[in-house]
Amino acid sequence: MNTTKPIQTAITPTREQDYPEWYQQVVKAADFAENSPVRGCMVIKPWGYGVWENIQAILDKKIKDTGHENAYFPLFIPLSFLEKEAKHVQGFAKECAVVTHHRLEERNGKLVPAGELEEPLIVRPTSEAIIGEMFSKWVKSYRDLPLLINQWANVVRWEMRTRLFLRTAEFLWQEGHTAHVDEEDAMKEVNVAVGMYKSLIEDYLAIPVIVGEKPPSERFPGAVVTKCLEAMMQDRKALQAGTSHYLGQNFAKSQEIKFLNNCGEQVYAHTTSWGVSTRLVGGLIMTHGDDDGMRVPPKVAPKQLVIIPVIPKQELEEQVLAYSKEVTSLLSKVSYADQPLRYHVDKRDLKGGDKTWQWVKKGVPIRIEIGPRDIEGRQVMLCRRDRGVKEKIQLSLDSLAELLPGMLEEIQNGLFQEAKNRLDTYTVTNINCLEDFQNFFTAKNPNKPEIHGGFVRGLWCEDEEETAKILDPLKVTIRCIPDGQEERIGKCILTGRPAKIEAIFAKAY
Amino acid sequence: MNTTKPIQTAITPTREQDYPEWYQQVVKAADFAENSPVRGCMVIKPWGYGVWENIQAILDKKIKDTGHENAYFPLFIPLSFLEKEAKHVQGFAKECAVVTHHRLEERNGKLVPAGELEEPLIVRPTSEAIIGEMFSKWVKSYRDLPLLINQWANVVRWEMRTRLFLRTAEFLWQEGHTAHVDEEDAMKEVNVAVGMYKSLIEDYLAIPVIVGEKPPSERFPGAVVTKCLEAMMQDRKALQAGTSHYLGQNFAKSQEIKFLNNCGEQVYAHTTSWGVSTRLVGGLIMTHGDDDGMRVPPKVAPKQLVIIPVIPKQELEEQVLAYSKEVTSLLSKVSYADQPLRYHVDKRDLKGGDKTWQWVKKGVPIRIEIGPRDIEGRQVMLCRRDRGVKEKIQLSLDSLAELLPGMLEEIQNGLFQEAKNRLDTYTVTNINCLEDFQNFFTAKNPNKPEIHGGFVRGLWCEDEEETAKILDPLKVTIRCIPDGQEERIGKCILTGRPAKIEAIFAKAY
Predict the structure, then answer these.
(1) Inter-helix orientation angle B19-29/B279-288, to 10°
(2) Where do runs of H (alpha helix) occur along B67-180?
């Protein structure tokens, strides 16, 4: 029995009580998204979509600054295209939306599919198959390389169990597709993408990541190398936040992406692909949300500051709104992270307290309440979402504009540091035997199975078959072989066999 | 027999010779898009997609500045949703992509659709059906109105005959969907959208439009009022460039979008929807292209200026590139239309002449060629795409940065004026009898049927049945009842019956 008096929070249940359910409630309370009547498909609401738009703007600039161009390819992929790359189809063609008809007809007062297609079309689960087909036409000579293309698009994978943002049948993403003269140039590209993602995810989303390479069994279907960025959520599970693949010449061979090299020979190109998706928004919520709702890092917040005019009596309305206007004219001159401050005055016909709680749950970084008393004192009452909900800071109007950029930066860095501490604390490196490993991933309290464990970093023998026998019952996977390892020789923490690389082991989304 | 010596042009055939084929050739030569192996679906290439991205940025800002928020809704619409609004389904559900299965299985070494869905899903041809469903959950009280939502998305309509950008099975667009307390507020919204579109299309795309209302038979399925913007292409046919619909309470009733008004009564909302699509890019090409390829108006050009270093001998390369760098450091300080100048140095390993012609065909507004002679003279040779291909302007380096914004504005305005003159010249208002009307729309030279006619503006009796008998054989339609008419009474130019409004008649895409 719980004897301590519970603190009332805006979100029920709390993270501690039921993390998966807490997540669903925060997504809803923060007005990020909701389930749609279409199985597995979500509706991304304006506040959540605003975060995605900021992610897009930040990443799109990086993509263009590194020499890539955006283009757009068909939503549909003819069935026969998928059959070309055998491994790829095994990985992807299983669960997908299949278009078989191109018309509806009324029969007995009901609409039924008609006009059967000669060849069914697949709604793209990823676009290697169709983009490669175009590349084979565009690439003729080494002068056409590197070919650096990116696409912002929706994709569909018929997932059986879906969860808002984290795993949905339809999701939004960008997919980079590039072709190169050789492996060296292609691998450079793979790392350029990883670099862009690391900066996006750490510097803007304030989510620390471990960068590494997937073991062979976890590679993208058809890839030679899959690099990834792994983040730790508050339940200490891993979330794959982005991937970048070196596809070798596998796709080039099945899709005939050939070119005349500078020795006059016809050779196959080396290709890459890389992507991040709306899943990042899920990772953002699971990293920064708390028991009162979401906390959005300032750099990706649709609004960084909201003004809530508090009008106790109708006759004071004009006065309060005039003062709000004075405050916004100051705010309009404030910049943060090289962009004008994004602020909003919430004039809705609602009680002040209701508004406050809505913005707390949405996670706007800074709230400013303006009431009649503030006018006299030429001041504002400011609340930071990274502090206690009732903690207010009184600021003079004179100092407000000057203090805001530093305050936003403090919030941004604070959220990152909090997540970094979690990642560091719960990435353990002192597990050396199987028993300790198994204990680490087994909940001690079966009534609270949600938050326990973390990442284990330890030596691994690279025998995937043996490893799977140990990991599968624990529902643990190898997240990556982290980059930047020094050479060493020791014993695999799972099998005791000789091992020379370290891996990250974790439960994952 | 043609006796004049033909001028050689970059595009064959010329507009005069075969306008539809000229269009296809320009789209290809300008590297805007190409057909994909997926029936009716196009690949939008980087230069064409760059134009679309600029259109998006311009319009998205207008959409947000007028209080709308972006969101994202599912790609799929359950079949039963389409059955709710009878007129809507008649107009839309006919030709569409139908998803009937959610898996592929291997049978006898071939992939076949499996996992039949209980209810087929339609790939959205437009999103009223799914967005309305969500609106019915979001709208409870008059305080929730107006609800102003926009979506950037891909949509699919299974067109039988497709043409790049103008009519493709899949296309990209934005669709605004709004709900209001009453007709007045909704009609205001319809006109807000029209205003945004007019500014986008005239001020940025440099395409003059006639704004008006569709006659009942041409309305969007389910709409009470459809407003539209009609442009004239160079073959003098009309292109519908954008539409904005007042849907009355039709969709609100079928979708149960109800709210408690300020008298405490449950009433149905009044809704609107409005959209423009990648079709605008087709309209841009058909308006501004010439017999040497495309001419992109500066405000939407992905690059407004390109520098082509001309290197006659290898040993001069360093010198020429150093001078190019000097030029770009000047350009980096230039702004046009409140944005930094978009320029590019084409360093590709290609002959100067080939590069020049590629950029002519792509329609970059200004080309600057830099050769060894220019370095001595501290000058550049500048070519404007709106002038003859061989016309070069010599400019001193000192004056370049200062002159560019004015020059770009001159090109922008010149393209608009050229199109405006065409619209004015070929919109005739002096046709008063049926015979003249029929002659106007009948090609005089059957060997050159492509460029003739134009718009007829004249009084119309509003009898759609009678009108259709005359218009259908001519393949002419009523494009709109133009806005801003003064009241008058006269005779219908088609039927001779009493008429009080003027209409625009034209052949159309």
Answers:
(1) 110
(2) 79-82, 86-92, 128-138
Which tens digits make up the pLDDT trace of A100-134?
999 998 888 788 999 999 999 999 999 999 999 99
B172 contacts A72 by C-beta, under 8 angstroms: yes
Mean pLDDT of chain A: 94
Residue found under tokens 């049978």: B107
What is the distance between the terminal CA atoms of chain B, rounded to a whole angstrom? Answer: 31
> pLDDT tier at B161 (50, 70, 90 boundaries)?
confident
- Smallest CA-to-CA distance from B338 within B364, B368, B307, B299 is with B299
Task: Encode pLDDT of A348-359 as tens digits.
Answer: 988 888 999 999
Instruction: Report the C-alpha gap between B478 and B240 in whole angstroms.
Output: 11
Candidates B283, B289, B281, B243; CA nearest to B479 is B243
Query: What span, in angstroms and rounded, lies between the C-alpha atoms of B247 and B220?
Result: 9
Residues of A in contact with B41 (CB under 8 A): 74-76
A1, pLDDT greater than 60: no
CB contact under 8 A, B98 and A104: yes
Looking at domain A427-506, its CATH superfamily turns out to be C-terminal domain of ProRS (3.30.110.30)
Distance from CA of B83 to the nearest CA of A (A): 8
* Fold exhibited by the domain A303-407: Rossmann fold (3.40.50)
Amino acid at A401: A
Residues 6+ apart with CB under 8 A from B329: none
Q: For domain B303-405, give the CATH number.
A: 3.40.50.800
The encoded tokens of residue A446 equal 């079966």
**Strand ranges for A124-208 from DSSP E:** 147-156, 170-180
* Nearest C-alpha neighbor of B200 from the set B274, B287, B276: B276
Whether A79 sits inside 8 A of B43 (CB atoms) is no
Q: Which CATH superfamily is domain B19-288 in?
A: Bira Bifunctional Protein; Domain 2 (3.30.930.10)
Which chain B residues are within 8 Å of A72, Cβ to Cβ? 43-44, 49, 52, 172
Going from N- to C-terminal start, the domains of chain A cover: 19-288, 303-407, 427-506
B507: CB partners within 8 A, 6+ apart: B236, B237, B238, B441, B453, B474, B475, B476, B477
Contacts of A261 in chain B (CB under 8 A): none
